[in-house]
Amino acid sequence: MSADSLNYRIGVDVGDRSVGLAAIEFDDDGFPIKKLAMVTFRHDGGMDPATGKTPKSRKETAGVARRTMRMRRRKKKRLKELDKKLRDLGYFVPRDEEPQTYEAWSSRARLAESRFEDPQECGEHLVRAVRHMARHRGWRNPWWSFSQLEEASQKSSETFGRILERAQHEWGERVSDNATLGMLGALAANNNILLRPRRYEHNPKTGKNAEKLNVRGQEPILLDKVRQEDVLAELRRICEVQGIEDQYPELAHAVFTQVRPYVPTERVGKDPLQPMKIRASRASLEFQEFRIRDAVANLRIRVGGSERRPLTEEEYDRAVDYLMEYSDTAPPTWGEVADELEIAENTLIAPVIDDVRLNVAPYDRSSAIVEAKLKRKTQARQWWDDDANLDLRSQLILLVSDATDDTARIAENSGLLEVFESWSDEEKQTLQDLKFDSGRAAYSIDTLNKLNAYMHEHRVGLHEARQNVFGVSDTWRPPRDRLDEPTGQPTVDRVLTIVRRFILDCERAWGRPQKIVVEHARTGLMGPSQRADVLKEITRNRNANERIRQELRAGGVENPNRADIRRNSIIQDQESQCLYCGKEVGVLTAELDHIVPRAGGGSSKRENLAAVCRACNASKGSRPFAVWAGPARLERTIQRLRELQAFKTKSKKRMLNAIIRRLKQREEDEPIDERSLASTSYAATSIRERLEQHFNDDLPDGFAPVSVDVYGGSLTRESRRAGGIDKSIMLRGQSDKNRFDVRHHAIDAAVMTLLNPSVAVTLEQRRMLKQENDYSSPRVQHDNGWRDFIGRGEASQSKFLHWKKTAVVLADLISEAIAQDTIPVVNPLRLRPQNGSVHKDTVEAVLERTVGDSWTDKQVSRIVDPDTYIAFLSLLGKKKELEADHQRLVSVSAGVKLLAEERVQIFPEEAASILTPRGVVKIGDSIHHARLYGWKNQRGDIQVGMLRVFGAEFPWFMRESGVKDILRVPIPQGSQSYRDLAPTVRKNIENDKAVEFGWFTQNDELEIDPFDYIQHGGKDKLARFLSYMPESRWRIDGISMNNKLRIRPNLLSGEELPAKVYGKELSEEQYKLLEETLKTGLIIATEGLLSLKSARIVRRNNLGIPRWRGNGHLPTSLDIQRAAAQALEGRD
After folding, report:
1. Pairing with 316, which of 110, 232, 666, 965 sits 20 to 30 Å away (CA)?
2. Do domains 8-43+498-525+681-823 and 847-906 have the same CATH topology?
3. Strands (E), 853-941
4. Which residues are CB-contacts of 36 (< 8 A; sequence separation ≥ 6)?
């Protein structure tokens, strides 16, 4: 921190789709003195809202769309080149594409069966057949070259064999063993047999779409995947039969040309130790080995009291071999490594890498995934087990997980590609579907090999190996990613963007912070699909716990809590007997004992808990079980444990071994330290390293480094409770944390600014002591002595007592901010033109009518061409219908007139749509923003309406007008956006009474005076809601109708709905309305809402401060009535 900087700290609370941020100024004694900024940002985690029940990120769906467009663009180019090649060979090629009928199958069959004598007839059939093949050429391995495809085509594929068997079963002797795909297609056409799979209507009985069988129960002939090698063989046969073998190479290359997919090498980061080489994939076996060797080299074994020693060479080799050969998909524990080394679990000290303790042992995850998914009898698995060395195994993993041009070239040169292609389609598909570690290591494959070799030979860690192999200094470390570099994970990037902008604005305003503390929830940094899986798991566990609660209530337990549920589960595992003596116990009499205690609270993981009787627990006290029991009782207890049915399944074997290790342990566990509390997830590490890079790399003289701590878990909750903050602040009349109000994330972030490593350890020890107390005895005997725990050692106690004093001061600052309403909730706006999919996937056929037909006003509104629509609109005038007129002449534009018999394209439905090369698609979900229009009514009051702008039309708008600013580009009268106008708004615009004065979009903050709406807005649901919840800040959640908005309270969340608000019980009707408002939002008429004198659109900067003046192109806030009045006065 420089002399010009304020003494302030930044706290970050990453919740589930919300980020709380706080900057708090402190005095020299460490007491908070001023709230600089507190704000909660909501975000969507990068999820595409159109994906519904199967959530995917915008990045993923955009990637699919981009690849689809690229595929179609390449196909169009390939077909155009094919037509040119056919013309160069002297064939007549129709200018327009021929209808896709079964006639082409017939041409393919005839060309392969017998030679045409008439060259013109042969050419006609050949052009039709070759163009059909090019459009339906089937699948091939994307890495295959043409020569490999040619070689594979010398014999039929497995899939074609199955297709042939199906055809012979259907038609018998009519299908020869050397039939081609064209012959089978012609037979199917002539016999009314289903050729390809079709998707039929949704079956309400099965709940699925019929894809395999048609309505008559027939199985399609081409049920299996068509392979390009079979189509190529057919083309070669056609050329041979027709005597045009010399044309075969040119035709084959034109039909089967393909661009090999790969990631360009220049887009991959470079190795800092060998800058000419690219960084290796984290899935590579070289990186898996590197990670294991570095971790094992940093393991330490406790000897005696505090002395620690590194592993011997034999221990090092045994640990590395164990982790390299580990084949379970669940990560190994350090306890299992200790078993392998034949030492007590508590004597093996987990390694510390980059100041973070590795709580889970690394292992060769890539190999474990392959061996778990590939069955032993498959060719691929036999090659993996018997023939492949480490290099070939790694090449295979890179081939299916990291398709750069380098990996494909290496696989081809080593012969792996040929081996890969010899495996069955099912095996290859299995490999390509495997989910390996994503991202890049810091070093290249070559560097990793050199480091691994040195670490193996000398049994040392990365630090020493790097110095000796590459001659770098003792302080050298690979360059870290910059704060503005994306991670590639959409949710992490969304969070990182919010955090980066806030921190950089803080730095500009107040200088470098003293420290930054980050805490993240379990799902806070997860992608959409992973988050959905976790939320489903949480829901299942919650439902299961609720069933157990019901059972406990039926058994006489009143108001069972989480400890009762845990106790009940363990008692059931132990078959209602004390683990130590075998005496019968029940939920009301059993106590949960920590098998191995620890100063500051024992571990409450399942393997360290045992249901025991009161006598055994009292006798054992706070000693490790093995010390109390002695050898004989220890053996009896282990035998009793092995006889329990709950631990005889394969899935519980690891748990059984873990419990046995705890029973044998004779020393207490080491007290926890601050390094074991740091979050070790890849996402959290990425955020921490980027923050440290920004503030601490290349630090100028006179600047102190900024401390960056990242925690995962529940430290904030413990901080609020232990510091008394929960009881000191009030959110909507409630003390204690209130998830109902989203501002709690900003409050948590402020609390994080107080945290230091010593206090974090004490808070974790308090949590563990409380948990130990809850589990150890029935609730009536609970001792709340844990509340008095303030740390182990005088230094820790002193820091904790000082922290409690600072928490009291901070609570006052937070309460003041709540009272002054200076903790905003911000929803980032998406204003780029490319904002998700611009149209529905379903493609419909365009309809046609003649100019002279009768036309209703609704049919006119569906006319595709904008100029034709405007011309018909002029003819229609105020009428509802145009009668049929076979003499009608319509002037579309200068010099262009439509006769009565000419055809006009119309959309199939009265819905916003556009015409694409493939047909009509709807664009109603692509609303980018809405333009605001104001006019005065007869009383002179300003009324406000809107025009919704569809993002799908931006290319046309910008092309027609030359304006690139999507918020100001003119909207043509013939556009779908203009046609969508509500009648009142359209009337005022066309009568030149309305003027455009602003815009708003989804996620904009709408501020209203609740009492103003109750008095002037009407008696709708919003008015009823405001009568007992006077919320002034709302979020525009949707613009799905042309005259209504969907809004939700901006400060509220549906996470935990309260039964009381502001101290008053909610009635059943009020609770239902509250639930509806938060879960689905309220649909409110635009006229009554936006025409309020108090209505304002509030847009804020990164610190949460409203932005009322322009700063570059950043959007500014809008006082709707004032802006409309100014626009109307300016026009007059």
Report:
1. 666
2. no
3. 855-856, 881-882, 890-893, 896-898, 903-906, 913-916, 919-922, 927-936
4. 6, 8, 23, 24, 25, 506, 509, 510
Residue 481 above 90 pLDDT?
no
Contact 776, 593 (CB under 8 A): yes
| pLDDT at residue 555, as a whole number | 79
Q: Give dist(CA 977, CA 952) in Å, integer.
A: 10
Q: How confident is the model at residue 350 (pLDDT cuts 50, 70, 90)?
A: confident
Measured between alpha carbons, how far is 923 from 952 in angstroms, rounded to an integer? 7
pLDDT digits (tens, 9 = 90+) for 81-114: 999 999 999 999 988 776 667 889 999 999 999 9
Nearest-10 crossing angle of helices 794-819, 715-722: 90
Architecture in CATH for domain 8-43+498-525+681-823: 2-Layer Sandwich (3.30)
Taking all residues of the chain, what is their mean pLDDT, rounded to a whole number? Answer: 88
Distances (CA, A) of 117 to 131, 243, 997: 21, 11, 75
Q: What are the Cα distances from residue 1038, in Å, to 776, 790, 1081?
A: 51, 50, 9
| CA gap 246, 585 in Å, rounded | 89
Confidence of residue 924 (pLDDT cuts 50, 70, 90): confident
pLDDT digits (tens, 9 = 90+) for 858-874: 999 999 999 999 999 99
- What pLDDT score does 783 carry? 61
CA pair distance 1052, 44, nearest whole angstrom: 16
Cα 568–Cα 571–Cα 574 angle in degrees, nearest 5? 155
CA distances, 1125 to each of 63, 993, 1009, 1038 (Å)? 45, 13, 19, 26
- Which among 102, 122, 119 is positioned nearest to 111, based on CA atoms? 122
Sign of the four-CA dihedral 358, 360, 361, 363: negative
Backbone angles phi, psi at 999, to 5 degrees: -155, 165
Pairwise CA distance, residues 289 & 311, whole Å: 18
| Distance between CA atoms of residues 862 and 979, nearest Å | 9
Return all residues near 420 (Cβ < 8 A) that are at least 6 apart: 141, 396, 399, 411, 428
| pLDDT band of 735, cuts 50, 70, 90 | low
3-state SS assignment for residue 1006: strand
Other C-beta atoms lying within 10 Å of the C-beta of residue 649: 10
pLDDT band per the 50, 70, 90 thresholds, residue 1063:
confident
Give residue 1126's identity as a one-letter amino acid code: Q
CATH of 847-906, one of 3.40.50.300, 3.30.70.3520, 1.20.1050.10, 3.30.450.20: 3.30.70.3520
pLDDT (0 to 100) of residue 131? 94
The sign of the CA dihedral 560, 563, 568, 571 is negative
Model pLDDT, residue 22: 97
Domains of the chain, by residue range, sit at 8-43+498-525+681-823, 59-256, 265-470, 561-674, 847-906, 923-1131
Task: State how far the Cα of 929 lies from the Cα of 934, in Å rounded to an integer.
Answer: 17
Is the pLDDT score of 322 beyond 70?
yes
Task: List pLDDT tens digits, range 174-209.
Answer: 889 899 999 998 888 766 677 877 654 444 444 444
Angle 1111-1115-1119 (CA atoms, 0-180°, nearest 5)? 110
What is the chain's alpha carbon radius of gyration, rounded to the nearest angstrom?
36
Residue 922 DSSP code: E
Q: Which residues have a Cβ under 8 Å from the Cβ of 593 and sit 6 or more positions away?
A: 580, 609, 610, 611, 612, 616, 617, 620, 776
CA–CA separation, 429 vs 870, rounded Å?
Answer: 53
pLDDT in tens, 351-367: 877 766 787 899 999 99
Structure-model confidence comparison of residues 418 and 907, the more confident one:
907
Contact assessment for residue 322 and residue 337, using Cβ atoms and an 8 Å cutoff: yes
Instruction: Evaluate if residue 914 carries a pLDDT over 70.
Output: yes
